[in-house]
Write a structure and sequence with these properties.
Bound molecules: S-adenosylmethionine
Strand content: 15-25%
Strand order of the largest sheet: 3-2-1-4-5-7-6
Mean pLDDT: 93
Number of domains: 1
Shape: globular
Number of helices: 9
CATH topology: Rossmann fold
CATH superfamily: Vaccinia Virus protein VP39
CATH architecture: 3-Layer(aba) Sandwich
CATH class: Alpha Beta
Largest sheet: 7 strands, mixed
Order of helices and strands: HHHEHEHEEHEHHHEE
Number of strands: 7
Radius of gyration: 16 Å
């Protein structure tokens, strides 16, 4: 769990360089991860989707492309990130905190969160809110970083702690924000631990799909009826 004032400040500072840094650091693979999330959402044929922690709107855009009939609302607590989303053509944007959303119960058919849950002040609090605002049977789909298993674990950790903050620091001038990123990935629950958290927060039929050797994982849970 994270200090929300620090997170808000960090994203406000890196907003303008966020998308470029993402693509450089992931060698563009993040685009494929978002497409996979969008395909999962599409399989539920939703009419109204909330992309929480939408940031620059990349995941909302992938979902909108995969589900052209759906309305996709993007929400984030950081205005400079939402301004990036707006400049990149996203509409339907709302300033909202994922741990305390201004939406009624069962408002959405599906929810996505890309690289956002890890940054929230309370993971159970945020997941419980997600389960509250999505209708029963609807999916909550979380995409986030995880740690790959051996033999990739050691080289990946080296990349995470030594290469990533330096490269991102050069692009954004904000090395501290990316040192925070490495630490937050180490602290964030993954695999079965995350699925247990999903179940504790009112989600069922929970499953995990590691992508790119477990560098990231997609978690899906359906809101219990
Ligand atoms: C790494 S960016 C992810 C952006 C986008 N979802 C993507 O896939 O690239 C994380 C976003 O989470 C947002 N965020 C962090 N904590 C939040 C919270 N408690 N409520 C809403 N947004 C939050 C940040 O402002 C930032 O825009």
């Amino acid at each position: 769990m994270q200090d929300s004032a620090f997170v808000h400040n960090a994203f406000s500072r890196i907003a303008k360089r966020y998308v470029l840094t993402n693509h450089v650091l992931s060698l563009g693979i993040d685009v494929l991860w978002r497409k996979r999330v969008a395909a999962i959402v599409k399989s539920y044929q939703p009419a109204l989707v909330l992309d929480m922690a939408t940031g620059s709107g990349d995941l909302a855009e992938s979902v909108a492309r995969a589900c052209p009939e759906a309305r996709v609302v993007g929400a984030d607590f950081c205005l400079p990130m939402l301004e990036e989303a707006k400049q990149r053509g996203r509409t339907d944007l709302v300033v909202a905190d994922g741990t305390d959303m201004p939406f009624k119960d069962d408002s959405f058919d599906a929810m996505t969160v890309g690289f956002g849950l890890r940054n929230m002040a309370t993971w159970p609090g945020a997941l419980t809110e997600m389960a509250r605002v999505v209708r029963p049977g609807g999916p909550v789909v979380v995409l986030d970083f995880s740690l790959p298993r051996a033999p990739l674990a050691a080289p990946y950790r080296f990349y995470l702690h030594h290469v990533l903050p330096r490269v991102a620091g050069l692009i954004t001038g904000e090395r501290d924000a990316y040192q925070y990123l490495s630490g937050s990935i180490e602290r964030f629950p993954s695999g079965e631990a995350m699925l247990d958290l999903f179940r504790d927060c009112g989600l069922e039929n929970c499953r995990c799909e590691p992508v790119s050797w477990g560098i990231a994982s997609i978690y899906v849970g359906e809101v219990a009826g």
